[in-house]
Amino acid sequence: MSAPDLIHAALDRLGEGAVVLRETHSQNVRWANSQVTTNGDMWSTNLTVIAALPVAKGTGVAVMSGQLADPPEAAALADQALTAAAESTDSDRADLLDAGTDAGFEESAPALEQDTPARLVSALGVFLDARTPQFGYAEATRSTTYLATTAGTRHRHVQDQFRFEASARDASGSTWWGTNTWQAPFRAAAAQQTQDLAVQRKRESLDPGRHPVILTPGAVADLLIYLAWSASGRDAAEGHNVFAKPGGGTRIGDSLTQRAVTLFADPGYEGLQSATSVVVEANSSMESVFDNGMALGRQALITDGHLTSLRASRPTGERFGLPPVYLADNLIMTDEQGHGSLADLIGRTDEAVLINCLWYIREVDPQNLLLTGLTRDGVYRVRNGTVVAGLPNFRFNVSVPDLLHRIIDASATVNCLPREWADWFTRTAMPALLIDGFNLSSASDAR
Known about the structure:
Layout lengths: L2 H9 L5 E16 L2 E21 L2 E9 L4 H15 L30 H13 L5 E16 L4 E17 L2 E7 L6 H15 L8 E7 L1 H14 L2 H5 L23 E5 L33 E5 L2 E2 L6 H7 L10 E5 L6 H6 L3 E15 L4 E14 L2 E5 L2 E7 H6 L1 E4 L3 E3 L11 E3 L2 E12 L3
Helix pairs in contact: 1-2
C-alpha cells in the first residue's frame, strides 16, 4: 500500500487537521574490538494524525501516531485523534495554511542506493585495518516525509543522512572521530587516531579550574545545538530562560559576544540540505501544528554577535508580539575572524587544553543556560602550538552565552558531527573555538 493511500484515508476523516507520514529506509553496521557485530537493513512507516475540533472553550487538538499497514488502520487512527480532540483544549491556534502541492507528492518513497552497504563497508575497512582495537557505528538513512493538511497543503521531501562514528582504544587512552558526510577524509582520520593514541602515552596532570580550551567543531556543535533547542521566544517573554530581559521582554538585539559570530539554519546550506517547509507533529512552546507547510529559509538566531531572533510559532508570536521563527533541520555557526583548520588553530595557540568531544551533557540552570557534562575520548595539553601530552578527563560547567563571550580565536567553519546529540541531530557545521576561562570543574575517572 502506497504512502499517499494511507494519508488520504486518514485525512478524509478530518474536518480540520493534518497528516504527517514518514517512510524511512536505513542501513547500518556496528563494530567492536575491530570485528563487525551487527548490521541491519530496515524500513519503517510512521503515520501521525493531528485533529483539531471546536470545543466549548476554544479548539481541541489531539495527536495520534502509529506504525500502520493499510488505509483502514489509518482511518481508525484518525478517529482516535478526533475522539481525543473532543476532550481537550489548546489555547494556541491559527488558520491552517494552504502551502500548495508538490509535483511529486503521489510518488512512493525511494530506497537507498544499492551500493550503500558496500560504501559503508569501504569506509569501515579503513578503520578496521588499524592496529588498535576499533569500536563504532555507521548508518545511512533515507527518509521521505509527506505532509498533507485539510487546508490543501501537499508536501513531500526526501532527506538523506549519513553518520559515521569510530573510536580507537588502547592501554594509553581512547579517541573518537565522527562525520556527517560521505566525502570525509576517512584514511586521514584513521591515521590521526593512531597519532592521538601515541600522544596519550605521555601523560601530564592538570588541576581543575578555568583554563584556555580548544573545542573541536563537533564539541562546539554539541553546545550550540542545546542553545538552539533552548531559544524559545515564549519562554523568554515569560521570563523562563537565558534570553529573558530583566524587568520583562526578551534580549533580542542584545550583544552576546564581541566576535562577529553568526548562528543560523539554512535548508540550502551546501552538504547539509534539508526540508524547505515546516513539519510539526506536536505543539510546543516554539512550534504549532497549525504552522505546517510554512516556508523555511535561512534564519539566524545570532548575527554578528547580536541576538537577532528567537523561535516562535504564529500563535505564540501573535500572543507575545514576536515574529514567527522556525529553523531548518541544520545548524551552522560562523566566526568572521575565524580562519584555517583545527590544526592551524592549535598551531597558533601558546597554551591550552584540547578537548576532542563531550558527552552526558545536561542542563543545570535554564536562567543562564548553564550546562554540565564530561569530556571523553581525548583531552590533550597544547603547548607552543603542538599537542604534547594526554590529560585526564574532566567534568565541565559552562554557560553557553558566556562561552560565546569568551571566544578568543576560531578556525573556519566545517561540516561536523556532534557526539552527544548524533542520535537526534547530525547536520551541523561549526568552527573549532579557543575559549578563555573554560570551567573544568573537577577531574573525572571516565575514559
